[in-house]
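mind reviewing both lines:
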Amino acid sequence: MNYDFYFVHGWGFDKNFWSPVGHILLKKKIALSVKLIDLGFFSNDNQQDILDKSQKNIFVTHSFGLNWFLKNKIKTDILINFFSTPSFVDYQKHPKKTQKILSKMIKEFDQNPLDVLYKFYKNCGLENYKKINREFLNKDNLRSALIDLKYNNLEKEFNCISSSIFSIFLRDDLIFNPAINQIKKMESHKHHIRFIKSNKHALPFIEPERTSKIIQRFLENVNK
């Protein structure tokens, strides 16, 4: 397949989140090339000069990565979106509860950011993720992203996408608990939606083989 893949991680992670999936797609020759975009949560560098002059490109986003993608109004041939919607709050089963959780995370993050991150990783299905070096923690970027998740509604930007979109959601996600009937209403001839059984918000990192197969099957259907 002649696609250049661009992967965007979610809140609390770095570009290595997508590394296992990218490696599999290259090995299977599903990807022509792979670029892992880093949002600067653990460094001072935000990658903005991302797009090469690709003939065909696919963006694969995880959670907050969709928010970043929409705010930057990036053009792509195909968008593959894992576990998010244009409003992180409004499309969840209990939006008011989600707002309270985000407010609590923001407040506690100011006091002890590492505790917030480790609790988040546990809820993502990562009991023992990685020890974070406080020296490399970009508190401003992490806090700003939490605020974006709480308040941003990017439906206008999402509806302006003319390319094919494939959104995947977890039925039992502990981070993004999807309002299934509401999300199903977003489906259209260009927007394909799939719900899968899992509660691991970090599923692409935990199960890269399964994730790569989800991507591969969608592309095979698109190219029929």
